[in-house]
Each structure stands twice: as C-alpha cells, then as structure tokens.
Request: fold
Amino acid sequence: MDSPHTIRIIGDPVLRERAAEVTDIDGRLARLCEDMFSTMYAAPGVGLAAPQVGVAKRFFVYDVEDHVGPQVLINPVIEESEGEWEFTEGCLSIPGLHFDIVRPRVVHVTGRNLDGDEVSLTAEDFLARVIQHELDHLDGVLMVERLDEDQRKAARRAVRKLQLEATEPPTGLAARFGLR
Ligand code: NI
Reply:
C-alpha cells in the first residue's frame, strides 16, 4: 500500500511539541487525513497523530477494526477517565519497541469530526488505549514517558540504539522495519 508520508521517529523535535488547536476543518484537512490513513495502514498501525507526519496540529486518525471503521478526531479532550488497565503498547514513532503501560481503562472524550460536528464518545479497553496514546502525541508526550522507574532504564537504552540506527544509512531503520 502507498505511504504518502514518512513517519517521524523519536528524537524528531515535532514529536515533543504541544500541537496547536485546529481552526479550519476544510478540504485540505480532509485530504491530509486521507494520506494519514494510507500511511497508517501501510505501516501497519491502528492510530496515527498529526505530529507523527510532521504536522503540529491537534488531530489524529484511527481504525481499531471495529464496526465503526476509520475515524478522525479533531481537537480532542478527555473529559473523564476511570479504572486502571495494563496493556502492551507500541508506537509507529518508536518502531519495534513495546512496553507494558498502565492507563485508565475507560475515557470519555469530546472533539470534532471532519464534518465539523461535535463528537462525544465513551471508549473502553483497546479503543480507550488508542485514544489516550494518540492524544498524548498531541501534547508532545511519547509512551516512554508513561513508564515507571524500573522500565525506564531499559527503555532509554533501547531508544538510544534505535536512534543510532536511524541515522545510519543505508541499512538503518527504514530497511529494518520496512518503513518508507
Ligand atoms: Ni504513537
């Protein structure tokens, strides 16, 4: 599948910024979302936030392969959250690494869709996890910052190795993880 965008990898400053609110929900944004879906499916992944393709704006796309299908959430806000759930997360910007992370199990989130309509949804388990992970990207937060102290040292080593490989052409990250 075609991948219109290169996914930014940990170490890229755009992944550390707080993204700006979306002010115009227009055709340009819709086309960008289409490209992000292609990039996400090609990776493959279940969620992709705008900063991961170098756009510091508050929106993300996701498709958790449920009956709802592909979704875009613009200017999302978590209004409420409850429970606790440990789940093994991955991130397209930290390819090949996975970490057990505890987050709330249920979230109530509001935002807008591509039609500009208000969205209000209560998500549980995997969907809630994807939404929280992608929303973190909009705040410049990567999953490695959600680790406890014990996990952190090992994570730092793994990430450093990943970043070294990313700067080594031609057998770097792209070849190793099939990224384009
Ligand atoms: Ni991610």
